[in-house]
Amino acid sequence: MSNEAATLALLTLVLAPLACDPVDDLDPIQHDRIGLEGQPTKALPTASLTCDPDLEASVGGLYYPSTWNCAQAIADAESNFGSWHYRNACNQQVGSDIADPVDDAVVTSCQVDPSGQLLVTVDLCCTEPTLACDPDLQAAVGGLYYPGWTCNDAIANAESTLGSWHYRNACNQQVGSDIDDPAAAAVVTDCHVEAGSGQTVVTVDLCCAEPTLACDPDDQATVGGLYYPGWTCNDAIANAESNLGSWHYRNACNQQVGSNIATPAQQAVVTDCHVEAGSGQTVVTVDLCCG
């Protein structure tokens, strides 16, 4: 070969383009290695989350073990609608029933953290909040303890125990429902294990019963400070709501409405019942329909 031909061949070899794959075509293991160097995986599409913006939530910090790749983690995260993390995020950010699975999940980020675990962030379409009663009939009660229970069991119990004293009292105090009436619906809005005690603590939103004092407002009166020493609230309520000829009721109607003091009340609804600190006596307040 002549010197000119050899020189041309060498230039052709040096200038020829390299034939390796572009970075975007690296396989998952190579992508993970890039992540370990502190760079995120390539951008993920987010356009498929199409629910009402009022029903959208987001949750991050979801870990998948280093034996997974991003493709596997994304597939799992976008199909696992019943995840506690998703339900809790929807509950906290949207108000969905904490027991309801989400309607859709789209991974917005998948990267490898310094420990080698996959770290995923997800946008969610949440279910419509299910507490559907009139806002005037809604109440909330928190600080309900379930020692040793899982959240799943506590939620199931809390959402079905509509006759709970705590619920009836909250409805009575916040809405004016008859204290003896069960709630119409209960939806858990928070469930967590308390640091230190390890007890499961629940908060509940309620649909309360319609207040049942049905007379003309001009014929209504209230009497409080009625004592039932040693009685339970259930017994005191039953007595107070049936004892329409009580002097206390007739006197309250006479003073507040102008009723004949000898005329019994037409209806009595207990609006508060509690045990008095110190004396231990049960104390009742009653709303009345006067004669």
Care to describe what's here?
The chain has 291 residues and is of the alpha+beta class. It has three domains: 25-125, no CATH class; 135-207; 217-289. It is 27% helix and 27% strand. It has a three-stranded antiparallel sheet with strand order 1-3-2. A hairpin with a 6-residue loop joins strand 5 (185-193) and strand 6. The N and C termini lie far apart (126 Å).
Treating each run of at least 4 consecutive H or I residues as one helix, how many helices? 8
Instruction: Give the overall shape, derived from the CA principal axes.
Output: elongated
Q: Largest beta sheet, briefly?
A: 3 strands, antiparallel
Structural category: alpha+beta
Stretches with pLDDT under 50, minimum 5 residues: 6-42
Biggest β-sheet: strands ordered side by side in the sheet? 1-3-2
Q: Tell me the number of strands.
A: 9
| Beta content | 25-35%
Overall residue-averaged pLDDT value: 81
Number of domains: 3
Please state the CA-atom Rg, rounded to the nearest Å: 33 Å
Oligomer: single chain
Ends apart, CA distance between termini: 126 Å
SSE sequence, one letter per element: HHEHHEEEHHEEEHHEE
Helix content: 25-40%
Q: What are the salient characteristics of this protein?
A:
9 strands, alpha+beta, 27% strand, 3-stranded antiparallel beta sheet, 291 residues, single chain
Nutshell version of this structure?
This protein folds into 3 domains: 25-125, no CATH class; 135-207; 217-289. It has 8 helices and 9 strands.
